[in-house]
Amino acid sequence: MIAGHRPSIHGGVMATRPQVHPADTMNEYPPPVLSGGRRFLAEGDSWYTLGTLKGSRLSNLLFELGLSTRTQILNCAYPGDTLKHMVESVERSTFNRLLYLPRFEHKWDAILLSAGGNDFIDATATPLTDSEGKPTPAEQRILLRPDETASSTLTGPERYVSTAGWATLTRYLLQNFQAMAGRRDQGKNRGRPIFVHTYAKPTVRPSGVLPRDKGWLYPAFNNYGVPPDFWQPVCDHLFEQLRLFMLSLDQGSGSPNAIPKLHVFDSASMSGIKPAKPGEKGESGDWINEIHLTPKGYRKVGKEFGKMIEKVLGTYPPRS
Fold this sequence. Notes:
The chain has helices at about 85-90, 95-100, 115-125, 145-150, 165-185, 215-225, 230-250, 295-315, and strands spanning about 5-10, 15, 20, 40-45, 70-75, 110-115, 195, 260-265. By secondary structure, it is of the alpha/beta class. The protein has a single domain (about 5-125, about 170-220, about 240-315), classed as SGNH hydrolase (Rossmann fold), CATH 3.40.50. The chain is globular, with a radius of gyration of 20 Å.
């Protein structure tokens, strides 16, 4: 399945959506021709996944990037993938082979990563007890148990969040983003820009796809006994913390977390994304389920993300 070059007008400027090739096509004969124009290598979670979710309309941020130059994207993303898997899966990973492994690597104008969101979602769903029935330590959880919140002196959404667990998650994410950038710099793509994005804030609601037909955050908040009145405040707080962490990775952030040649697009700060209505199942607002946008929603993000990519790429020399 390939998305073609569909021109559109963004603010009076002609924009061209990229041509997106699934990574599996590299194993076909003949493989896709990636000559002409720019070449991006993409990896990530379901915001970049081709074909995305069964039962949903085609929904993918990469399809909707508004770019001013003809661009082809080789997309290695897989639904539900985590940053840890992207980093650990080296020899068998198409992304890693094409990024830096000798005899396989290609030169790319940029690397696009949609990462961190699935790791965060998985962390909210950490079981309260381990396989032996022992309580899961707070540093291994994002949410606090009811007995822990009962003794808290906090009154806001922070009351339900494990500070130790959040520190564990961000430390782990930072190490993996650094590892990804380190691999970029081991081969022909040394110093090429990496683009990542923050995640728009979802509405906690029982809307997902099998086997998670009740969504992702909704069952987690229920399991941990977060009161319904606090579902959205806790969700907003956690996604804001994730946003701030992701922004700290930007090379210009001034943060100790900053990674050279990594650029963060702040989709979480966009005001045009229409939220879903609490309690609604299925498509609502610009969301197709609890944590994924509709094609229209991705189009809103892609329009602005594409502008940011063009602006930043203008500061880099062309691919040699």
